[in-house]
Amino acid sequence: MLCMKTAKSSQQIPAYSRYRRQTRLPEIGLEGQEKLRSASVLVVGAGGLGCPALLYLIAAGIGKIGIVDGDRVELCNLHRQVLFSEKDVGELKSEIASRKLKNRNSDVKVTSHNFWLSNDNIMETLAGYDIVIDGTDNFPTRYLINDACIFMEKPFVYGSVYRFEGQLSLFNDEQPDGTRGPNYRDLFPEPPPAELVPDCSDAGVMGVLPGIIGTMQANEVIKWITGMDGLMNGRLLIFDAVQSESQLVSIPKRIDNPVTGENPSITRLIDYEQFCNPANGDGVDEISTKELKNWIKTGKDFRLIDVRQPEEFEVSHLGGELIPLEQIDYIAESIRSDQPVVFYCRTGRRSAEAIRKLNPHVKFNNLYNLKGGMESWKRMSD
To answer: Is the pTM of the predicted complex or chain greater than 0.85?
Structure first.
């Protein structure tokens, strides 16, 4: 019989004492609990979505949980990332989350992967898990997860939040006929134009909303492992936190899907930073994180400008001047012809917009956008 140890005593206690309310459900029972104990789940992102999902996965008795996150806790995370406290600020999210989860259920094996997912490590990382929870907040990683799961024939539970709206679906699940269900590219074949998707740091998000969607992601994983009906395969749930309303949208498989369609054009992992942040044809030149690091290392003379808001700059920055996007027009006359100027923000979207605003007023071709912004910088640094 499956047993566990409490933190206070070495006395062996039958597992059903912990999971009794869960195993009483006919849809789960002792057989379903054993399936949960034998399953492995990878949670990508220990943020607003990942924190609640992890809490309920550990409580449900999943046998093995992996946490992928290369980021550190910031004070602005705490209104929605409920695993962390003030004393955790500055610490690695994956390590803090792993330690706290182990204290909640010593039966579960918890592994922290203290890095950002990339083309170089994703295949090896996914190989050790049955199903993936996507708790990310950026398009390059989301498309990377989607394509890697397709190539490795693994399902993943998608979740996203924006202001007061959340989305949920199950992608790439195996069908009764052996084929795979719709994936993220059937819903969004390509990322939307940068100007149509402002950062969450710009638009904001209600703190409780990631808790709702993240809990739903954990629920979807538990249903999938135990073989319950009602999976979100082929369906997208859209939840409105203001009206407390939800709607379900069907997701058909696209014949022009570049990975799984009739004539796939993508047969291996690609450059997802380039795919999601392509070079603009309107005169916005870019500089990569690697190039910028080299400029700093060699002492090149250049001007660095952060176009985010003061509260974002206060949390973390790369240095340079803080000139919010709405004030960028005022610096046109101060730009020198003999000095490159690098603009940055969180993802490279607002900084590209800053250059577009300045271009009509500046006659020099020395304005550069940091490709991928601070998110790319952090991934490269860690």
So the answer is: no
DSSP 46-92: -STTHHHHHHHHHHHT-SEEEEE---B--GGGTTT-TT--GGGTTSB
**Domain spans of the chain?**
17-275, 279-381
Verify whether residue 345 is a known catalytic residue.
yes
pLDDT tens by residue, 113-153? 999 999 999 999 999 999 999 999 889 999 999 999 999 99
CATH 3.30.70.1150 describes domain 17-275: no
Catalytic residue (choose from 51, 149, 200, 276): 200
Query: What are the structure tokens assigned to 246, written together?
Result: 């939800």
CATH assignment of 279-381?
A: 3.40.250.10
Beta carbons within 8 Å of 72's beta carbon, 6+ residues apart: 90, 91, 92, 93
Concerning whether 51 is annotated as a catalytic residue, the answer is no
pLDDT, one tens digit per residue, over 222-269 is: 999 999 999 999 999 999 999 999 999 999 999 999 999 999 999 999
